[in-house]
Prior knowledge:
The protein is of the alpha/beta class.
Amino acid sequence: MTFKVALLQATSPATATAALAQLTPLYETAVAQGAQLILTPECSNLMEQRPAQKAAAVTTVEDDVCVQGIRALAKRYVVPTLLGSAIVKSDLEGEERAVNRALYFDEKGDISAFYDKIHLFDATTPNGDVYRESSGIRGGERAVTASTPFGDLGLSICYDVRFAYLYRALAQMGASMIAVPAAFTVPTGQAHWEVLLRARAIETGAFILAPAQGGQHEDGRRTFGRSMVINPWGEVIARLNHDHPAVLMAEIDLTEVSRARAAIAQLKHDRTFTST
């Protein structure tokens, strides 16, 4: 099955209203170009790491202007859409931390799947920037696939890409495509972004769809951009070579998944082993 996918690359602001205002024309451009599946990056609803401002901006899925705005666009244009992630309040009673949540809207605009980012970015980058995502975000506990009209889409978010076992699990759950919405830092993006994405495609025999944040954000962060689509053989078939807001279109032929997995049946070759 062949279809057109669109990845929206953004430089998301610090409020959901402003983020939606940036994403809407990108979304409508993708629709005009024939997109049949649309994906947005991590933190699509806001890029804000300053504690006070973030606390004031984060709300529930139901009340978030950007989440509901993208949901309305999916319904209006009848296009299945993955909101790569939104920073929203946890629905776990008593939990003060937010969640970093991917939301899949079907062609009716209904939320048919969601995934909370499992692996949280607690790191110090080579340029000395310190990130402690776990201080304000509660990690998820479930691997999730979304059923699209074209095939199952595995859900992951950014730092997850460093944990190959999650991607293997998604492929073995039936995913023929895996989304990697991200907000990579510039140093880690320059060193690791493409090689990690290509490795995950090769290991799983799945298409990797990686929409990214890029550019200078209001909270002082700079993200890498370079959104890309990778086929099951590990070849980059579409990319943006910059960090500006843009739409990346690609044609996906899912017969490539079965061909890659037939050539190298690695998903069937698990063995147990011991470590000493």
